[in-house]
Amino acid sequence: MTLIAHFTDTHLGQRPTIDRNVDGGRMQYDRVPDEHGRRLDNVLDDMVRRGVSAAVFGGDIGLGESVAGFFDRLKALPLAMSIVLGNHDTHDDVVRHWRPAVSAVDRRLCYSRPGGPWRSIVLDTSDNAIGEAQLAWIADQVDGAERIALFMHHPLLAVDTPVEHAGAALRDRQQLTSLLVQTGCEVVVFCGHYHMVDDAREANIRQLMSPAVSYQIIKRADRITLDSSTYGYRLIDLSGVEIRTEVVLLS
Length: 251
Ligand SMILES: [Fe+2]
Prior knowledge:
Blueprint (H helix, E strand, L loop, with lengths): L2 E5 L6 E6 L6 E6 L5 H13 L4 E4 L9 H9 L4 E4 L7 H5 L15 E3 L5 E4 L8 H12 L4 E5 L10 H7 L4 H11 L2 E6 L6 E5 L2 E5 L6 E2 L8 E2 L3 E7 L6 E7 L1
The structure holds fe (ii) ion.
């Protein structure tokens, strides 16, 4: 068994608030240099204690000035890392510290790795869209594949929650969904972005959303509501044809 950790949305140095002057509420962030650092340390400690050997970070490191410290923390650990860009991340800031062996599309952090029964594919949705170039690339990648583990910051399938209705959804998700449905292969999407745990399905696609390392957003509410009482990450075992996964929540 090879345990992978999926941890996401650290938002280092960013304390969230909600602007209630906007219909449904809009997320904004105050600059608080140490914000969420302890939570990231606790999550990384927990992973190492459980014998995790590889980890995928799901995006949204935090303030630009937090990026170097984020990678310093990771480099000190015995973890093989993969990085997914989120809408708070900047390509150039991140590739100064980490880059894949081959990035398939120019100036996009997208890459693919075979490994066991699941082909892992990472997409870059940092500008809130997949874009034509990545769509063309992934069409090639999924051709003939049996099982795809797709890591991206934004969810692909709709989730009925106020954040989704407040305009945070990925713009061209329908194009990728149609493409994946047509392949008929088994697809599991691992995402973050909405700061909540969710398990959704549509046709041959299953979507597992991981909790944020920073703060959560209540899934069922009339309007965007924050919850700072818990944080966590997801453990994944991709060594068999059946994916095994477990959410770890800390408080
Ligand atoms: Fe986030």
